[in-house]
Amino acid sequence: MVKLIQTLISGLSLGSIYALIALGYTMVYGIAKMLNFAHGDIIMVGAYAVITTVLTANFPPLVGILVSILVCVVLGVTIEFLAYRPLRQAPPLSVLITAIGVSYFLQNLALLIFGSEQKAFPTIIKLPTIEAAGVYIDGITLITLVVTAAIMVGLTLFINKTRMGKAMRAVSEDKGAAELMGISVNHTITITFAIGSALAAVAALFYGMSYIYIRPTTGSMPGIKAFTAAVFGGIGSIPGAMLGGILMGVIEQLSKTYISTLWSDAIVFGVLVLVLVVKPTGLLGKKISEKV
Questions:
Q1: Which residues form the signal peptide (predicted)?
Q2: Measuring CA to CA, which residue among 73, 53, 205 is closest to residue 143?
Q3: Cβ atoms 79, 102 nearer than 8 A
Q4: pLDDT for 65-123, tens place per residue?
């Protein structure tokens, strides 16, 4: 029983990271209807920004966090302007190829600047490990879950209650109609990318604190799995992104512990396929009916 509880806690820790990354994915897709596959690499850049600011330049951790958010927002907005905006009306395959190209560009740029050796992430917050009945709970796990839940609630309220949120929903529904209502589609999508990239900086912070070391390819696999989590929960759904991330982390950890680490990824993707067969829109995704 202790082993099972410890495994579930490890799954929650992993899943909360996936959920945090998936929130950025689903935010951009839900509004702009574009998959930003470079999102994981923006997380990697945010992590390096913290390392450079805190360890190299010797600034306080708070400054490192603020610099990371600023760098990620500027990078995300720049990517949207240069790479994605010209392709809004392009076929999905063209957007996918561009996104993969941006991802490889960021990885190789980081490789040239920081080298191939992994770098230690600084200690931003010191939290104790809680022990109860032989079960250990890392403080980072608890704070990641709390922050992820708070961001999910905050994003939901922002989308549903604020003027910008209403503009985002209008752009998501129909860009042409939104323009006729006086909404700037370009400005709205830029703000969406800025928010998604700020979330990437937050994800970089908690990923770095959980996994300690950062390398140029750090964001690629977590990014892919977080995208899978967003699809699992229902891409475009903010609560779905969190649910998908948590479930995916738990399933992956259970698979590693009780079946095999070699099969864990295959099991996770197998469960995803089963869910999509039963509910193609994901667990919390909504089916959209188009009138002809």
A1: none
A2: 205
A3: yes
A4: 999 999 999 999 999 999 888 887 777 788 788 888 999 999 999 999 999 899 999 98
Calculate helix-pair angle for 139-161, 185-211, nearest 10 degrees. Answer: 170
Half-sphere exposure of residue 36, counting CA atoms within 13 Å on the CB side?
A: 39
Distances in Å between the Cα of 101 and the Cα atoms of 10, 130, 176, 258, 260 are 33, 43, 29, 37, 33
Distances (CA, A) of 23 to 158, 240, 245, 292: 14, 9, 9, 32
Hunting for tokens 């099969």 — which residue is that?
263
Q: How far is 222 from 268, CA to CA, in rounded Å? A: 13
The β-bridge relationship of strands 119-120 and 213-214 is antiparallel
